[in-house]
Amino acid sequence: MIDLAITADHIRDVIGDYLDAHPSDKAALAPILELLDDGADLTTRKEFRGHATAGAILTDPNGLILHIHHRALERWLLPGGHLEASDATLCGAALRELVEETGIPAAMVIAVGNRPVHIDVHPIPANGFKGEPDHQHFDFRFLFRTIADVGQLQTEEITDAAWRDADSISDPILRQRVTQALG
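RE: above sequence
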């Protein structure tokens, strides 16, 4: 069987490509590169210094962005989540999360390039229920397009979905980059 797991080299390559387009983000991404230099496995959620996650920004033909209501966090978010051993690429992981959470078939989704539109480093508070201390998420956010509508939601995690204007994206950098990409 072929090992499809995302590698440190893949993460470095994606960051390098991203920094070619967004060199001003280099300082913000330094924690990721430092952990990679230390040999950390950023693909496992057990790496509590920080680990990679994959997010999807999905737009419809009218330029609306799909938001999901996360059950545990009681917040509207963009689809995404932790990496799995079966993920071969960060973009593929974002697509997998999107499909799992929204029920939209992968065949109905097109990636807008292989480069993330944004990489966000943000703190995650401790979760005693899961036995997780404070840590960081390195969220690789990819832009996708679809003509499909939401299918069967992953009800264990998601309570609702809604298409909203790009202005509703709370992160100002992500909002700007998505708006620019959509023209």
